Amino acid sequence: MDTVNLTSGFILLAFSDLHYYHAVLFSSLLVIYALTWTANLLLISSIILSPQLHTPMYFFLGNLSVVDICFSTVTVPKLLSCILRGGTSISFLGCFLQMYFFVLLGANESLLLSVMAFDRYLAVCMPLRYVSLMNDRVMNMMNISCWMASSLNSLLHTYILSQLKYCEDRLVHHFFCDVTSLLKLSCSSTNLAELLIYTEGSVPIIIIPFLLILISYVSIAKSIIRIKTSSSRSKAFSSCSSHLMVICLFYGTVIFIYIRPSSDYSSQYDRIVSMAYTIITPMLNAFIYSLRNQDVKQAMKKLIMQGFSLS
C-alpha cells in the first residue's frame, strides 16, 4: 500500500456517522466552547485584578485556566468544522502539530494538578512554613518545570509517530489527531513506538503525578482528622474539595483512554470519553472553582459589578 507524505495528510471523520444529530451536536459544542472561554477568562481576570487572590493556590489555578482554554482550542474549532462538512481533511504537518499541542497541554495539566496537590499538602500539613516554602521563586520554578517536562514529552511522542509509515487508508476515526488513532493507521510495525509512548508517556506524565496526588491527599486527610475544631476541619477540607473534583474528572477519563492495551481500542467509545476531558472538563474546571470557592465568587462579583458600572 502507498504511504502518506507531507502533502497527502489525513481525513478526520469525527462524528460523521451521526448525520441526524449534527445540528444539535454543533450548537451544543459551540455553547460549551463559548462558556469555556468566558468562564476561564473571568476566572483569570479575577485572579489578576484581585489582590486577595495573589496566593500560590490561585497562581496555579490561573495557569490551569490558561491551559484549559488552550486545550479546548486545539480540538474544538477543527471539530466544529468536521461536523459542518461531515469530515474534513488535515495536512500531515497540521495533524502532527495538533497532536503536539494536544499532548503538551494534556501533560501540562496532569503535572499542574500534581503541583496543586503538593501546594495543598504544604498549606494544610505545614501551615507555619507554607509562606517560606511556597514563595514566588518556587512557584515560578514549578510552573516552568511543568511546561518544560510536558514539552519534551510531547516532542518525543510527535517525533516517534511522525517516523512511522502510514497507509493509503487515511481515515482517522476521531475528531482530532490522537496518538492511539494514528497508531492504528500505521502500516509499519508499531511495537517499539507503543512501548516508548506508553512507558515514557504514561509513567512520568500520568501514573507518577497521580500517585503523588494520592500521597499528598492521604497526608492531608490525616492532618484534617487531627484538627480538633469542626470549623477548622471544614475550612481545611473546603480548600481541597474543588481540586479533588477536578482531579477525578481529569484522571478518570485519561486513565480510561491511555492506561490500557491498544487491543482494547474502540473509536466509538473513545470519541465520547475524549470529549469529556478535552471539551467538557476545561469548562467544568472553571465552574467548579468559581462556584465552590467563596474568595473567587466574591472577586468575580466585584469584577462584574465594576464592568457594569463602567458601561
- Give helix and strand order, one letter per element, not per position: EHHEHHHEHHHHH
Mean pLDDT metric: 85
Tally of individual domains: 1
Question: Radius of gyration in whole Å, from Cα?
Answer: 21 Å
Task: Give the total of beta strands.
Answer: 3
- Major beta sheet summary: 3 strands, mixed
| CATH homology superfamily name | Rhodopsin 7-helix transmembrane proteins
CATH architecture verdict: Up-down Bundle
Fill in the CATH topology: Rhopdopsin 7-helix transmembrane proteins
Count the helices. How many? Answer: 10
Task: List the strand order in the largest sheet.
Answer: 2-1-3
The gross shape turns out to be globular
Features:
disordered N terminus; mainly alpha; Rhopdopsin 7-helix transmembrane proteins
How does this structure look, described?
By secondary structure, this protein is mostly helical. The chain has one domain: Rhodopsin 7-helix transmembrane proteins (Rhopdopsin 7-helix transmembrane proteins, Up-down Bundle), CATH 1.20.1070.10. The protein contains 10 helices and 3 strands. The longest helix is centred in the last third of the chain and has 36 residues. It is globular. The protein starts with 9 loop residues before the first strand and ends with a helix.
Secondary structure elements and pairings:
Blueprint: E1 10-12, H1 22-49, H2 56-85, E2 88-90, H3 92-125, H4 130-133, H5 136-162, E3 171-172, H6 179-185, H7 191-226, H8 230-258, H9 267-292, H10 294-310
Parallel strand pairs: 1-3
Antiparallel strand pairs: 1-2
